[in-house]
Design brief:
- It is a single chain.
- The protein is α/β, with parallel strands linked by helices.
- Among the domains are: about 190 residues, 3-Layer(bba) Sandwich (FAD/NAD(P)-binding domain), CATH 3.50.50.60; about 50 residues, no CATH class.
- The chain contains 10 helices and 18 strands.
- Strands 1, 2, 8, 9, 10, 11, 17 and 18 form an 8-stranded mixed beta sheet that branches.
- The longest helix is centred in the first third of the chain and has 24 residues.
- It starts with 12 loop residues before the first helix and ends with a helix.
């Protein structure tokens, strides 16, 4: 039995405010054999571990830092349905039959998350009042009108809102309209991650943190997983590292473009912010450089955009950007400042579709969530375990694929970062 590790400094507001306890544990299984070794303790890896344990399969999660250390603990916390692409574009790219299957799976994905939260009593500040996709201008509104027509054709509970309705639900008249997706909601993402870990442990899975996987080798029908603290033998391996993938498996790191998303949080504002998102929907907009906004359970405002944090919560470029943006949206908001600032990494694919890849016999990975980690990670973690347990590949929401390299991914990442930094500078002037 592994023993707990000492606590670490919080890496985000969600880490500091989570009601679920950290479950960091030492590696104490050198030479052990399991059905599934899982690399990475984020949404994907912990969803896989929990599902495997519920099916009676032995699973061991290996995490270099602590559960939720990567994008899972730095996420905005929007439990969104679908992906960034409009439904019509999904069907155009995948075909009518496969596209409809994909859209159905991702339309139901928030319910999968909420069902797990309820089943395992995960304390993660869950709301189920939907999310808002806000039109930043006339072109954004036209895009949302097209999306709404598609969702209506499919019978999905997504409402098109005019400017007045958006003003009522947001507290600002800055948006030209929007979509209210009733399937969606918000959570504390670190709380959700830790709750999945707690549930997985309770069902018999093992989790080791502070242990780095250094090599994978297949021999005699099983995988030898080498770490800096010993080895683990496994019939199957799931690489659940997504945007934090390193060089462990050749070429995988170049199958996506890493970009960053930053956030800043105010102190609790109480009644001063009661008119802002009064029903507590999370919001993101249609801008080329996306902005997000939400409230947490303690009435903090959490605002973010693409890029990294420059300076800290009290000073620097990102703080100036966030302060000016909130002042533009809510000019009557009283004095405020920021207590927390952080950023995380997102894996973007050229076509904005996620991937499930069979890298070798008994070796799977899921990658390229394009900013939809909560639902995609939860869905794909379970899907990969179902494959391992013997389900046919047809159960997947999209076909298995090979990790194709993104031409010039490091250069693209730097170009994106430069553009996002320029956006902060321009918008903070």
């Amino acid at each position: 039995m592994s023993t707990p590790l000492p606590p670490q400094e919080p890496l985000s507001l969600w880490d500091a405010s989570s009601e679920e306890a950290d479950v960091s544990r030492r590696f104490a299984e050198d030479g052990a054999s399991v059905d599934i070794a899982i690399v990475g303790a984020g949404f994907t890896g912990l969803s896989a571990a929990l599902h495997a344990a519920e099916l009676g399969l032995s699973a061991h999660v290996l995490e270099a830092e602590k559960p939720g250390f990567g994008g899972s603990g730095r996420n905005v916390g929007l439990v969104n349905a679908g992906i960034w692409l409009p439904p019509a574009e999904v069907r155009d790219k995948m075909g009518e039959t496969q596209g409809a299957k994909f859209l159905k799976a991702f339309g139901e994905a928030p319910s999968r998350v909420f069902d797990l939260i309820e089943k395992h009593q995960i304390r993660c500040e869950v709301t189920r009042t939907g999310t808002l996709h806000a039109a930043h201008g006339p072109s954004g509104l036209r895009d949302l009108q097209g999306r709404h027509a598609e969702w209506q054709r499919m019978g999905e509970p997504v409402d098109l809102l005019d400017r007045a309705a958006m003003t009522r639900l947001t507290g600002t008249d800055a948006f030209h309209g929007g979509l209210l997706d009733h399937r969606a909601g918000t959570i504390n993402p670190m709380g959700y991650c830790r709750g999945l870990a707690r549930a997985a442990l309770a069902h018999g899975a093992e989790i080791s943190t502070g242990v780095t996987v250094t090599g994978l080798a297949r021999k005699a029908g099983q995988w030898r997983v080498t770490t800096d603290q010993g080895t683990l033998l496994a019939r199957h391996v799931i690489l659940a590292t997504n945007a934090y993938t390193d060089t462990l498996w050749p070429g995988l790191q170049r199958s996506f473009t890493p970009i960053h998303f930053f956030q800043l949080a105010t102190p609790p504002l109480g009644h001063e912010a009661a008119h802002i998102l009064p029903e507590r929907q999370g919001l993101w907009d249609t801008g080329r450089v996306m902005m997000s906004l939400r409230r947490d359970a303690q009435d903090r405002l959490v605002i973010g955009s693409m890029g990294t944090v420059f300076g800290d919560a009290k000073r620097g470029l990102s703080r100036r950007w966030a302060r000016k943006k909130l002042a533009q949206l809510f000019p009557d908001l009283g004095p405020f400042d920021f207590d927390e600032a952080w950023h995380g990494q997102i894996a973007m694919t050229p076509d904005h579709f996620p991937r499930i890849c069979a890298l070798d016999e008994g070796l799977y990975t899921a990658i390229g969530y394009n900013g939809r980690g909560i639902t995609t990670g939860t869905l794909f973690g379970r899907a990969m375990v179902d494959l391992i347990a013997g389900s046919p590949a047809e159960i997947l929401p999209l076909p298995l694929s090979d990790p194709a390299p993104v031409t010039g991914a490091p250069i693209l990442s730097r170009l994106y970062q430069g553009a996002f930094t320029a956006n902060q500078i321009i918008k903070s002037l």
